[in-house]
Amino acid sequence: MFEQENKFYDENKDRLRKKYLGKEVVIAQNQVIGAYDDVGTAIRETVKTRPLGSFCVKSVPVSPQAEIIRIPTFLVSR
Q: Fewer Cβ within 10 Å of end Cβ, the chain: N or C?
């Protein structure tokens, strides 16, 4: 799941860092469709126009050393 979006993120990390440093980016179909300050807002806003499972949220860390794996926990409600 999200192989295409993860590949897009990995191939564009440097460009994304320049434009979206410290943001949560929403990726769908090989493009950034939104950028937000936190993952909860990214998901709440994106599900207004797209169904869950049709997009991926990735963190754009401030440096390559800050890149960590994290699994956010939150509720999405409409």
A: C
Written as six digits, the tokens of 62 are 């401030």
Report DSSP letters for 41-53, one per residue: HHHHHHTTTS-TT
- Distance, first Cα to last Cα, the chain: 24
For 1-26, write each residue's pLDDT tens digit.
Answer: 789 999 999 999 999 999 999 999 99
SS3 22: coil
All residues at 6 or more sequence positions from 64 whose CB lies less than 8 Å from its CB, including other chains: 13
Instruction: State which amino acid sits at residue 17.
Output: R
pTM metric for this prediction: 0.79
